[in-house]
Specification:
CATH superfamily: Aromatic amino acid hydroxylase
Mean pLDDT: 96
CATH architecture: Orthogonal Bundle
Number of strands: 6
Strand order of the largest sheet: 4-3-6-5
Radius of gyration: 19 Å
CATH topology: Phenylalanine Hydroxylase
Strand content: 5-15%
CATH class: Mainly Alpha
Low-confidence stretches: none
Distance between the termini: 42 Å
Length: 298
């Protein structure tokens, strides 16, 4: 059996070669090794979720009824998720250009990877896999406040695209798009991917990159090497990040209502030109990302 292992899946390669971005989950292709990798990832992180995950995430895991032994079926996940917040996991063949990704959120679809990391690389891989997307992200999508915040990210991206498209000069459009995409990607990274939240008198993780990492989930809250600060928008949009190591700097929100209000503020900044020239550095913005904004439609 060929399997659906990250970077080793012929099914995904064929979809990419044929230009298929949104795909189905060919469940019959998962190998026993894929299922074993999922089971190992899921079982070992349970104790750390209980210690370090925010309560809404834990509630979401229970609501989704995720299979602990076998790779979950997307259609079954959606049968639990969709009635709660209108969100659905949407299988993809790989990278989704920036505007298309945010527009999926605006329409309450979450682009979801269907491959599972190699069983010999359980601790880390730079590209997302199904454990990151489904076990890390999707439980938070069961919470209305958080789900509505993701939709606001999509609204913000649409506002940005329309502002950029009003510019007459093509080179200026590209420069603005690059800066705005960096700003949005950084803010998303330091919140949805790697955010911390106050929970009573302690800090908990709500970012999917933390919640899907056995090692970093403890490190982010216990290590003296990590800087943890209350989030400020101007810091987040100008702070570069690296994806191949534990994060040395993390930002704290007070609540998901607080996060929602910050996305509102980010949209105002976009419209007022306050993210037209953010600091250089990561993340890399591809031509496909820029073109996705230049050709975006409501």
């Amino acid at each position: 059996m060929e399997g659906l292992t990250t970077t080793k899946a012929p099914f995904i390669e064929k979809a990419q070669q044929s230009g298929e971005r949104f795909i189905h989950q060919p469940y019959e292709l998962y190998s026993e090794e894929n299922h074993l990798a999922w089971s190992k990832l899921y079982s070992r992180i349970q104790e750390r979720w209980q210690k370090y995950a925010n309560p809404k995430f834990l509630e979401g895991v229970a609501k989704l009824n995720l299979d602990s032994k076998r790779v979950p079926k997307i259609e079954e996940i959606n049968s639990f998720l969709n009635p709660l917040t209108g969100f659905s996991a949407k299988p993809v063949s790989g990278y989704v250009p920036a505007f298309i990704f945010f527009d999926c959120l605006r329409n309450r679809d979450f682009p979801t990877t269907i491959t599972v990391r190699d069983i010999s690389k359980l601790d880390y891989l730079p590209e997302p896999d199904m454990f990151h997307d489904v076990a890390g992200h999707v439980p938070m999508h069961t919470d209305k406040e958080f789900a509505d915040t993701l939709v606001r990210f999509g609204d913000c991206a649409l506002s940005a695209a329309l502002v950029i498209q009003e510019l007459k000069d093509k080179e200026l459009q590209k420069q603005r798009a690059q800066s705005v995409i960096k700003a949005m990607a950084r803010f998303f990274w330091f919140t949805v991917e790697f955010g911390l939240i106050r929970s009573g008198n302690e800090l908990r993780a709500y970012g999917s990159g933390l919640l899907s990492s056995y090692g970093e989930l403890e490190h982010c809250l216990k290590s003296p090497d990590v800087q943890r600060y209350p989030i400020q928008l101007e810091w987040a949009v100008n702070q570069y990040f690296e994806i191949d190591k534990y994060q040395p700097l993390l930002f704290i929100i007070d609540s998901f209502d607080h996060l929602f209000s910050m996305v509102d503020e980010l949209e105002k900044w976009v419209k007022n030109g306050k993210v037209n020239n953010v600091s250089p550095g990561e993340p890399y913005v591809s031509d496909a990302d820029i073109e996705s904004f230049l050709h975006a439609k409501p």
